[in-house]
């Protein structure tokens, strides 16, 4: 009798543990993929992260080959997007279209953007993302990080997420050190026109970076930068910038790399290193925080100022619909269009629905 009770007791115990595990898993995963796609807004790290454990890095010949291929015909300049499982996997959030699908669609639907696919290097941080990239026949590079599995373990993702962001900074530093200029793009950025035609070609400009809201003066350090899209030239000054930035990894507990860069800018790093930095006008390099005023000029649209992946996907779909409508109209007239309001992103902040308010 007693042993039966004990058996039942331990069975209940095991069941309880199992249920809690399932709960934790489901509870933490959506918040992981959401955070992954946030540009810089939102509660990033509630947990204290131990950054002193060093990221183990290894690149090898594979990286040189990948960079040489992706920069072909583009003067040692590559376009880099970093993806993991959460970006590429179908049905992650019960939505048939992934952010990565929309990202690639934009290159197809954009004006003069199709050939840029050849210069795009997809950096996959886990096997699922790499397999998806290979399947699509893109330029793919598998970024290995020993001792950290960016695709698997989910319970401690907050910490893993921050680590992954720092991993990105160290990877971009490595690309600069190898002599390549780069455009870094998040995958929630729609490429509607060729950005190289709008970025300054002046080689004295070391970094050109997107902003949430443009203040009118391209040299003003008062801008709130957004690291979701930037063009950086490879030289000693930019390498120092990335080294200094990455050097803060162990002294920035709970801070995202973008916030660390913002702190460095406030502390005057650009002047200190003699960097010439252009802050990009949202007329061309726009986002949901500030729509481009002219669809005839817009180059990129970033789903910034948005809190969840579902909201981003829904509103980016509407943006691409607007764009397709414009391309149809464009054939016979010189019209501008009004962007559909980013309703899903708006309510993602817990604000009342503007449509229903009339
Ligand atoms: C952080 O990691 C280092 C090295 O792995 C370890 O020595 C240290 O005790 C850890 N600190 C905390 C607070 O976990
Ligand atoms: C390519 O880059 C080099 C070095 O930055 C520069 O001197 C040259 O003018 C560039 N060529 C073109 C076609 O942009
Ligand atoms: C690039 O910018 C520098 C500094 O503003 C300027 O002196 C130079 O004339 C520019 N070069 C070109 C080719 O426009
Ligand atoms: C870490 O940051 C604190 C405060 O910002 C500063 O006083 C300290 O010197 C920094 N430590 C290192 C090792 O950079
Ligand atoms: C866009 O909105 C403005 C002001 O709300 C309106 O005057 C204009 O006609 C609209 N344009 C189009 C193409 O719908
Ligand atoms: C906002 O409200 C309208 C009308 O009630 C509804 O059709 C729409 O789906 C809502 N949008 C969001 C993002 O909730």
Give a description of the structure.
The protein is α/β, with parallel strands linked by helices and 358 residues long. It has a single domain, classed as Spore Coat Polysaccharide Biosynthesis Protein SpsA, Chain A (Alpha-Beta Complex). A seven-stranded mixed beta sheet has the order 4-3-2-6-9-8-10. About 12% of the residues have low confidence. The site of one 2-acetamido-2-deoxy-beta-D-glucopyranose has 3 residues, from loops.
List keywords for this structure.
binds 2-acetamido-2-deoxy-beta-D-glucopyranose, globular, seven-stranded mixed sheet, 12 strands, 11 helices, alpha/beta, three-stranded mixed sheet, Spore Coat Polysaccharide Biosynthesis Protein SpsA, Chain A, 358 residues
- Fourth CATH level, the homologous superfamily: Spore Coat Polysaccharide Biosynthesis Protein SpsA, Chain A
What is the highest CATH level, the class?
Alpha Beta
Name the CATH architecture: Alpha-Beta Complex
- Please provide the ordered H/E string of secondary-structure elements: HEHEHHEHEEHEEEEHHHEEEHH
* Relative helix content: 40-55%
Unreliable runs: 21-56, 152-157
The main β sheet shows up as: 7 strands, mixed
At a glance:
The chain is an alpha/beta fold.
């Amino acid at each position: 009798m007693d042993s039966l009770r004990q058996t039942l007791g331990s069975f209940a115990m095991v069941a309880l543990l199992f249920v809690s595990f399932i709960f934790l898993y489901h509870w933490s995963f959506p918040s992981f993929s959401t955070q992954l796609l946030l540009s810089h807004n939102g509660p990033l790290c509630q947990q204290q992260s131990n950054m002193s454990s060093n990221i183990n890095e290894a690149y090898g010949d594979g990286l040189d080959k990948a960079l040489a291929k992706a920069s072909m015909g583009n003067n040692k300049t590559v376009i880099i997007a970093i993806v993991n499982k959460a970006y590429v996997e179908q049905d992650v959030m019960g939505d048939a279209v992934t952010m990565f699908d929309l990202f690639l669609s934009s290159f197809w639907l954009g004006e003069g953007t199709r050939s840029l696919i050849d210069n795009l290097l997809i950096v996959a941080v886990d096997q699922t993302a790499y397999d998806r990239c290979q399947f699509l026949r893109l330029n793919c590079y598998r970024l290995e990080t020993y001792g950290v599995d960016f695709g698997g373990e989910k319970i401690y993702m907050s910490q893993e997420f921050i680590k992954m962001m720092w991993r990105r900074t160290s990877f971009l530093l490595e690309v600069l050190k190898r002599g390549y200029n780069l455009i870094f793009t998040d995958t929630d950025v729609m490429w509607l026109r060729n950005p190289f035609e709008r970025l300054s070609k002046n080689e004295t400009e070391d970094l050109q970076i997107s902003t949430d809201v443009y203040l009118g003066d391209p040299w003003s350090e008062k801008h709130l930068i957004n690291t979701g899209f930037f063009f950086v030239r490879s030289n000693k000054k930019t390498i120092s910038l990335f080294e200094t930035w990455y050097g803060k990894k162990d002294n920035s507990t709970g801070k995202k790399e973008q916030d660390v860069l913002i702190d460095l800018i406030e502390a005057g790093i650009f002047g200190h290193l003699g960097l010439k930095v252009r802050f990009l006008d949202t007329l061309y390099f726009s986002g949901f925080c500030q729509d481009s005023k002219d669809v005839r000029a817009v180059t990129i649209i970033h789903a910034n100022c948005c809190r969840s992946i579902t909201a981003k996907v829904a509103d980016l779909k509407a943006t691409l619909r607007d764009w397709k409508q414009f391309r149809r109209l464009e054939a016979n007239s010189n019209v501008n269009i009004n962007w559909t309001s980013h309703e899903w992103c708006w309510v993602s902040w817990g604000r009342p629905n503007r449509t229903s308010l009339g």
